[in-house]
Amino acid sequence: MDNINQQDIIKSEIEALIADIIKVYEASGKKVSGEFKKGLKAIYEEDKAIIQGYTYLAGRRAGKMPPIENIKRWIEQKGIQPFEKSMTTSSLAWAIAKNIAKKGTNSNYHLKIYEQVITPERIDKIIKKVSQFNVNNFLDEVSIELQLLEKNI
Questions:
Q1: Please, which domain of life does this record's source organism belong to (predicted)?
Q2: The dihedral sign for the CA sequence 129, 134, 137, 138
Q3: Integer Cα distance of 112 and 117 in angstroms
Q4: According to the model, what pLDDT value does residue 69 have?
Q5: The domain containing residue 23 runs over which residues?
């Protein structure tokens, strides 16, 4: 019974975190396809939970070229037009991918969504809720044991 209640606290807090992550995401102006929201999920195990989701809102370092098709789809979903009449959406996607491979993405535009929502203060609040639950259970158990001892004396 105790683990069920503790797990309920954990589940409630994780669901609140996910809801807040989605709110920040939707208010950020970064929403294009909705894949980020669909990719967020919680995995529950006994006495713990894991939030899984995409990290692409945090940008990327220079390195290999990102998939051109993904950038092309992003361009189309955002309604971005090539700046030159002779440029196609595919060539613009290629140019963007080449630039990302060379320079990475600009960190000024990164959305550190998880860090905005899952703050040390928020984690502390969750720990206190779970700890308070455990302390209350412990005190209840000690009280019951003391009552039993008094009856046996």
A1: Bacteria
A2: negative
A3: 9
A4: 93
A5: 1-53+110-153
